[in-house]
Amino acid sequence: MRDFLRWQKRNLVTLLMLAPGLASFFGLFVYPILVTIVRSLKPEGQSAGWTLENYINFLSKPSARGVILLTFILAISSTLLSIVLSVPLALILREKVRGHRLLRLTILVPITVPGLIGAFGLLLFWGSRGWVNLFLTQFVPFIHEPIRVNYTIPGLILFYVWHYFPYTCITTLSTLESLDRSIEEAAAVAGANGWQVLRHIVLPLIMPGILAGSVLTFMAAFGSFSIPLITGGNYRPLSVEIYTQIDVFTPARWSMASAMAIVMAALQVVFLSLYMRILRRPAA
Predict the structure, then answer these.
(1) Fewest CB within 10 angstroms: 1, 28, 178, 197, which?
(2) Which domain holds residue 264?
(3) Is residue 3 part of a domain?
(4) 138 Cβ partners below 8 Å, 6+ apart?
């Protein structure tokens, strides 16, 4: 009996400690998701009845498939480019090169800048009369017209990479710096050259850091709103299209926007599950 009371007391204490976190999780995540799902199944402008019309209307439009494709192109491209940039940069910073502290601080700048402010800055910096184009047109002999970066898909990918690649870089660098160098030294003593050590020793060991960072980058890029809203022009991913349903149309299409948000969340979960499974699969 005494053991049972002690067990109950321990469980009660555990429940009380978990209660704030569980309440926050339910209030900030579960409840909004449930409200969005319910709203997406309601006829537009009505509170009674249930329907799948909002999902059918959205997914049956060719423009919707284009929006989904654009969202994936932006997110996947920025994630892959973030990995390509992060791994060499992490290898350089690991060696504590001169100025590495300043470089580390510079890497953190994009994620400390609010998305809206960063988007406006990128719009001005890369504009037709921005610093980059002014420099190119005045100091590069064969460039006479401004290079169009804003309101283009390559420009959006460039802006996504600038704003979100620090997630991949930071986790990759942290994993790399925690790696025991004696493992690499042992491989070198066994006759492996630098490329073989990198390919067969370093990269497999830091893959968890790359995976974690790239997942964060993909999630942030997939749901990006401020950057495509300001610098995307006619190229509008899902997040901006959802906002359009509420802000542009009168009356606001809340049910359609809710259905689009659920589709967006489902696509993100499915892709992330496949992505993590592929990267975690052992190499043959």
Answers:
(1) 1
(2) 62-280
(3) no
(4) none
